[in-house]
Amino acid sequence: MRKNETQISTIIGMNAECDGDFKAEGSIRIDGTVNGGVTVTDTVIVGASGCINGDINSKKVIIGGEVYGNLNVPEKVELTSTARVIGDITTNGLVIDEQAIFQGSCNMNQDTSKRPKPNRRAVKEMQKEAKSAISDALKDAESASAGESDQS
Questions:
Q1: H helical segments located in 22-119
Q2: Cβ within 8 Å of residue 8, ≥6 positions away
């Protein structure tokens, strides 16, 4: 097995249905339906036919099916082209393929202790530059519209 391959320790098959919260060690693949929260220590893979009606808590998630709930995934969330996610995502990494459906909000990289605080002087200077650029653009627009009315 290669280093970056995920070893799946639990499988919920295509026609299986699990009612209630589900917890497992390692990685899991879901091709059936889980009506409840899913808590896994490593990776959750939701196949194209899979459906979760509840929140997901795991290290990584790859979704090809449907999830109706919030995702709390510290490492990476990947939504393939067949994914449908209705809920909020909290993660450090997010990949959304074209055609995937995602409705909700996303919070990424929320560890504010690692971020440098912005320099107040630099922020004020950027604000002045932005105001100046807006003022110049408005003047240009006014002079252009005045020129058009003179030609009429």
A1: none
A2: 26, 27, 28, 29, 45
